Amino acid sequence: MTSAPASAPAAQPAAPPIAQPVAGGTPSAASATGLPQPSQPAGVPGQPAGLPGQPVPFSAELARRDFPILHRTVNGHPLVWLDNGATTQKPRQVIETLAGFYGSANSNIHRGAHTMAREATEAYEAGRAAVADFLGAPSPDDIVFVRGTTEAINLVAQSWGRANLGPGDDILVPVLEHHSNIVPWQLVAKETRARVVPVPLQPDGQIDLTAYADLLSMRTQLVAISHASNVLGTVPPVREMTALAHRYGAKVLVDGAQAVAHFPVDVQDLDADFYVFSGHKLFAPTGIGALYAKPEILRSMAPWQGGGNMIESVSFARTSYAPVPHLLEAGTGHISGVVGLLSALNWLTSFDRDAIAAYETSLMAHAQQALSTVPGLELLGSAPERIAVLTFTLAGHDPSQIADWLDRDGIAIRAGHHCAQPALAHYGVESAARASLALYNTPEEVDKLVASLHRLRQAA
């Protein structure tokens, strides 16, 4: 069990936007665009924010200071936000960046001849460069902006899938996947007469790697796998599974929606053919996400949607297209979303990511031990490699009833099937309660969750 750190300080007024470099003294990618820059993560009192080229030392208390919403009350209680698997809260740096963009820099991008158009374009493309760096991609041109993970997977299914799948081809999809990594493949499989093949799980929620190896064949064209499960927390051995799939010539798509906020990602080390994530699970705004694809694959993909931005010239005789990534970004993009995503990445990477991962691991261990004291509570999944997702049932209580009870104490969790019905069916249940932790959660908040669950049991 981890020792409980000191309580977070009371809410402080948000500082006004200030043009400052990120921690470490290196200007952020957006600072060269002329856009207003928010203040950076607060430093530890009496200590420097960080040495040049080094991240700020991490602590949950330090991170919490940057989240205004964590200092509100719900039903007369301090908010305990344990619904991070659904969406993360936004630091004031992101909020200030969005306000600054709309207040002084709003413009459409690309092809604009005026100053604000150039500034907005620079910020948008700085966001693309930041995502490439965040994922370890070779080039910003390997990054396509989308609304989120779901749209990215559908883009790959409809563009790459239509062209490369056919009768008799297999798409391997583990049972632990989110519906967003199942349904798009079912749709394209029906259209191309391919088939979706489920990969079973072991009792602890790990992928059955023996079964996976047996299911792979020369018929396998794609493996679609999450980097971390949204309902079991399982972190599969993606690098090893990808290497095995590549022996058969199959491509691998990795759903990173639940992974990117919890530990560093390197798409080149994973050797992933596609990697996708959503900004709103990464302290960024909703409606923005990214698709990474290997450049040779990206260049082979046909347009999924047509319109502005993805063309070079249009006539009724002949239309020519822009190169990737713009080819796959029809219409006006979510410009402010990209600016907010850039701010979120700057904020997150200003901290020591390994320290964040270590903290979350210790917090999860504390939560597992504390939840084990609640009579009738059963945690689903116990894979040794996992993120801090705690999905559970409580004997005699419907998950929605549990969530409603906790909400009265200001504790936000999620209840239902979590868009992962096959994974829940593996445990013989149709719905469950889920507490999902993030870097700003504390042992005290976990203890509040457990105390409330004890009261629920006593009230029954």
Total beta strand runs: 17
Question: How many helices in DSSP terms?
Answer: 14
Mean pLDDT: 90
Can you list the strand order of the major beta sheet? 4-10-9-8-7-5-6
Radius of gyration: 23 Å
Q: Roughly what percent helix? A: 25-40%
User: What fraction of the residues are assigned to beta strands by DSSP?
Assistant: 5-15%
Distance between the termini: 29 Å
Note the main sheet: 7 strands, mixed
Task: Return residue spans where pLDDT drops below 50 for at least 5 consecutive residues.
Answer: 1-32, 41-52
User: What general form does the structure show?
Assistant: globular
- Which structural class do the helices and strands define? alpha/beta
Oligomer: single chain
Quickly describe the structure.
With 460 residues, this protein is of the alpha/beta class. 34% of the residues lie in helices and 15% in strands.
Features:
460 residues, 7-stranded mixed beta sheet, 14 helices, globular
Task: Give a structural overview.
The chain is built from 14 helices and 17 strands. The radius of gyration is 23 Å and the shape is globular. Helix 2 (92-104) runs antiparallel to helix 10 (335-349) and helix 3 crosses helix 10 (335-349). By secondary structure, the protein is of the alpha/beta class. A seven-stranded mixed sheet has the order 4-10-9-8-7-5-6, sandwiched between helices. A four-stranded antiparallel sheet has the order 13-14-17-16, covered by helices on one side. A two-stranded antiparallel sheet has the order 1-2.
